[in-house]
Amino acid sequence: MVSTKMRSFPESAIRDMSLLADEIGAVNLAQGSPDFSAPAAVKRAGADAIREDYNQYEVTTGYPALRESIAAKAKRFNGLDADPEDDVTVVCGSTEGIVDAIVAVTDPGDKVIIPEPFYESYIPATIISGARPVHFQMTDPEFKLVEEQLKKAFSSRPRAIVLNTPNNPTGRVVSKAELGLVADLCTDYDVIAITDEIYEYITYDSKQHVSLASMGDMYERTITVSGLSKTFSVTGWRLGYVVANKDLSKAVRTIHDYTTVCAPTPLQRAATVALGLPESYYRGLAKTYDKKRRFMMSALEGLGFRFSRPEGAYYIFADYSELSDLDDYAFAEHLARKVGVATVPGSSFYADREGGKTKVRFTYTKKDATLEEAVARMNKNLG
Question: Which domain holds residue 329?
Answer without folding.
Answer: 4-31+280-381
